[in-house]
Structure formats: C-alpha cells, structure tokens
Predict the 3D structure of the following.
Amino acid sequence: MSEPQGSDGTTQRLPVIEKETDPVPVVHDGDGKGGRFWSARRVPAGIVAVLLLVGAGALLYDVTAVRAKRPAAHWRRELARQLAQRPLDDTWVLVGAGVAAALGLWLIVLALTPGLRQVLPMRRTHADVRAGLQRAAAAMVLRDRAMEVSGVQSVRVHTSRTKADVRAVSHFRELDDVRADLDSVLTDAITGLGLARPPALSVHVGRPRGKG
C-alpha cells in the first residue's frame, strides 16, 4: 500500500498508534504443576439420587395417606416392628449396618478423590488453561519413539501416573547399547510430553524367544 503524498509531491509517513495490550497471565506458582482432573461421578451420583428419590417419594406418599385417615403401608408397619423387636446384636441388624457403612465409606471416598486416573495433567503455563494427556496416548508416543531406535524389534509400553514401564525386544545389536539408546530417547520423549509430573522411566530389553 502506497503512502500518501503531500501537496509538494513529497511522501508523508502516517502516524503510528501503538496499542498497549495486557500480557497473557502466566502461572507463577513454582514449577507450574497442576493437580489431577476431577471426575464428574455421574453414575454414582445418579444412583444415589434415584434411590433417595424413590425412598423419599414412598415415605412421603405413606405419610400423606396416614394423614388422610388411611392405614399405614404394610412395609412401614413391618419395618417399625422389626426395628422395635430385633436386638442390636442381631445378625440382620449387623449385616444391614455393615452394608450401610460400606456404602457411606464408598461415597466419602468418591467425594474426596479426583478420579480420572487415565488422564495425566500437563504442565500449566497459563493461569486460565488446563490440559491433560490420556495415558494410552502417552504410551503410544513412547512406543513410537522407541521403535525408532536401531535394533528394536517390538515394544510394549505401560504408563501409570508415576511410572513408564517399557519392555523392548531387540533382534540385533548389544542389549546394553540398545538399552542406553532407549534411555536417552525415551527420557527426551517424556520431557517432550509436557506432563506436570513426568513418570519415572523403567526400560527392559531382551532377545526374541528362541534366540540367545
């Protein structure tokens, strides 16, 4: 685009308006590590909600029927009788209490633990952005990088939140040389994943079955 010319034929430069932009917020809480992603727990929450809805609805209906001068439901009369007659050390009372305690403990554990164990949190570089990497995807990346090492015939990779277990089969080259190359390549690959807590690397190299 040509610049405008003045009346005397000389070229004049347009004034440049500089606009100040706010810098992108960056996390400065140490090394940028983020916590695990929390599961929505939809299935347990749905089951508990349905059970509470059914129980509360049945009890409300029976109470309303009693207020309307109708006899109480048989299940409520039987439940009241059983609770009044059975001692606390009765087998069924202990079984029911154990089941209720186990369910309550299970719900507490679900409420206090993040879940989503298959998602590995990635390093946070921006305050408003969180990213995660599936463990299967991380294992696939490490497997592809390991297959690039000379002498590697096949690789099996298992990743967890704290460890990457790599088991390779080498059909030529010295095993120590292949293991050293795998250590170097996979260490760089794990760093390149950008995980908040990089897993520890464990490499095992062997020969194909039937070969020395």
